[in-house]
Amino acid sequence: MIRLENVSKSYWSRGVRKCVADRVSFVVPSRGAVALIGRNGTGKSSLLQLMSGQMQPDAGRVRTNGLVSWPVGFAGSFHGEMTGAQNARFVARIYGIESDRFVAMVASLAEIGAPFHQPFRTYSTGMKARLAFAVSMSVDFDTLLIDEVTSVGDAAFRARSEDLLVERLRTRAAVIVSHNLPLLQRLCQSAVVLENGRARIFDDVGAAIAHHRETVMAA
Questions:
Q1: Angstrom distances, CA of residue 20 to CA of 58, 85, 173, 178, 209
Q2: Residues 153, 15: Cα–Cα separation, whole Å
Q3: Domains of the chain: which residue ranges?
Q4: What is the pTM (predicted TM-score) of this model?
Q5: What architecture is the 1-67+142-219 domain classified under in CATH?
Q6: What is the pLDDT of residues 160-182, one digit of tens each?
């Protein structure tokens, strides 16, 4: 479970102060998925980083219960000179997981073939996202933070990724950021729409999507 309590966060970009969260409060339950919806630049990825602990709020609190993932799809923590396999083995050691089994699981999920044993810096953007997804799915997180990762790869890979998420969400929780609105409607039970740093909570994902579309059209 993740609880945001009056969380505020802003930063300066090119001399302009940008607010990504203005007294945001909501709860991510211990099971099921919450969609995080908003236009580009509204702070969705920043909010995931706040929930993961990679970024600290200016005010308010983020409370977590259980093991929370890094934003799935974020590959910035992988070492460029290490191979995909070596990066996976390093993660296994951090989380106390038997490394040979973990590396084999990651290789099977990532489906990147021979490059799995080549330096991470040589990977395409899609391959990096596949590896990040596979590593994250191979750790037994209580809550997954997912940032557009199911949009990479071919149709077969996307379908397998969605099937795996559906299976995990039977007993785990997730916050999912995606511009694929039909995907959010399939996977999520509730939604948070971000607008100008404020969060509007919806118990119905379809209503959240309709509100988001109206907001985009009115802009």
A1: 11, 35, 23, 17, 20
A2: 37
A3: 1-67+142-219, 77-140
A4: 0.87
A5: 3-Layer(aba) Sandwich (3.40)
A6: 888 988 998 999 999 999 888 99
